[in-house]
Amino acid sequence: MHPRPTTSADPARELLDDFPEYATTQILDHLRSTEYARLDIGGQAYLDYTGGGMYADSQIREHAASLSAQVLGNPHSVSLSSSASTTLVERARRAVLEFFGATDDYTAIFTLNASGALKLVGESFPFVEGGRFVLAFDNHNSVNGIREFARAKGATFDYAPLTLPDLRIDRPALDALLAAGDRSVPRLFAFPAQSNFSGVQHPLDLVEAAHQAGWQVLLDAAAYVPTNALDLRTVQPDFVTVSFYKMFGYPTGVGCLLVHKRALPLLRRPWFAGGTVNFATVQGKAHILSPGEAGFEDGTLNYLSIPAVEIGLRHLQHIGIDTIHTRVQSLAGWLLRKLLDLRHVNGRHMVRIYGPATMKARGATLTMNFYDPEGHLIDYRRVEELASERRISLRTGCFCNPGAGESAEGLTEEDMRAAMHAGADMNLQKFVQLMQTRGGKAAGAIRVSFGLASNVDDAARFLEFAEDLRDQTRLTLGDVSFDIENCRVIRDGA
Ligand SMILES: Cc1ncc(COP(=O)(O)O)c(C=O)c1O
To answer: How many angstroms does the Cα of residue 132 sit away from the middle of ligand 1?
Structure first.
């Protein structure tokens, strides 16, 4: 049997045939050669936009020029230098609210990153004895961690399961979870707008459905907003979390929690800090928290970096988020089809994709594992090493999203218990080995994701790299075979 040809002589032509709308994104080819030229100068194919975005040279220049031209001081004062910082920070805050259509209804709280925003919700949400926290199975660990705040206050939590093989939220199961319980206690439902594991985009109408059932809603938009428009006039979660470096690369160290004004009074901060109080006394042993965002911004804000957020947002607006969306969806759609077509010479599939096999309701994040001609799992760590040798940056592991990986790979509660009991030094590497001994299950995967500076050469380079794994037999992890087509483990030689 002969493999179907997959590498096309002219990927750009083929991409345009499949996705004619790609032609409307030419501005990004121009920017690739001007603003992001360092990628091609260094011969790099960067494919980890879900990990971190790319900054344009002009963002850095504009920010550096602004820093060089001004005297900026700690904003907790009214001096000239302090007021100058406050002005820039407040301009950035306004720009964030405007970008998301949130000016009228939301408060924007600057944080260190999306995790910082999620932690603010977790520690301030009024979980009580008998309260509930429901979250999707494919949340990032920084959302999973909120369950510890719920647990500490006596609330219970439950995960809404995912359907296989598409890894979408099981709607009937979720509806049942949301319908149960006491409406009179505060209840929080959290889900990612886009999974950072599978790229699945969960329907945003879940927000309204949960509201109708009497829940507060936390939408983790960190993986969604870099390539999708989010308009908070039309969908109104109580809490929305983002990291700006994922949207436009620079600055790192700044994220945001957007809180709907109706939900703000619900939050109870467990402590106070410099910058968050209108008044605090030592002898009186009391404090009065500042109203609005100030009550949540602990200590001194990153007042030198926050102004760069406005510059980044302007850069995205100049390109147009819809143009970026069209670009990445086309690239991911083309690569997805080509990867699904890859076969070994014996006709067996080479790649198992976790999540939807089409671009319907999914973003430009593709997560996969490679298998050898006999269906043995190829070690993703070796794949990453080989990719690095070719100057391709991709991501491997579990991407801080254990629930999606557990669902995708069929890992059971028993498997996870075995791992927890295997010793305090358990880590991902040991876990991968352990799962091989428990029916040859995969643990960890390879993730490729596109962003605003991606082009067809990046996608074609990864495809070429993947094709070179055809008939590769030396990189496997264990001796249990997996039948990709029928999604089941088969014993070696069976
Ligand atoms: C969906 C999602 N939520 C939250 C986070 C956490 O973001 P950060 O590491 O910037 O805090 C990430 C990061 O990858 C993510 O993809």
So the answer is: 23
Q: Which of 245, 194, 222, 233 shows the shortest CA–CA distance to 99? A: 233
Q: Which atom of ligand 1 is nearest to the CA of 51?
A: 14
Give the span between the Cα atoms of 68 and 445, in whole angstroms: 44
Which residue did the predictor score with more confidence, 155 or 421? Answer: 155
Residues ≥6 apart with Cβ < 8 Å to 425: none
Q: Residues lining ligand 1, CB < 6 A?
A: 50, 113-115, 140, 142, 192, 196, 220, 222-223, 243, 255
pTM of the full predicted structure?
A: 0.95
| Tokens standing for residue 380 | 């993703």
pLDDT one-digit tens code per residue, 164-197 = 999 999 999 999 999 998 999 999 999 999 999 9
Catalytic, 400? Answer yes
Atom 7, ligand 1: which residue's CA is nearest? Answer: 114
* Superfamily designation of domain 11-34+320-490: Aspartate Aminotransferase, domain 1 (3.90.1150.10)
Q: Ligand 1 center to residue 112 CA distance, Å?
A: 11
Q: Which residues of the chain are in CATH 3.90.1150.10 domains? A: 11-34+320-490
Alpha-carbon torsion 352, 357, 361, 362, what sign?
A: positive
* Residue ID of nearest Cα to ligand 1 atom 2: 222
**Domain 62-318: CATH architecture, name and number where available:** 3-Layer(aba) Sandwich (3.40)
The residue nearest atom 12 of ligand 1, judged by CA position, is 222
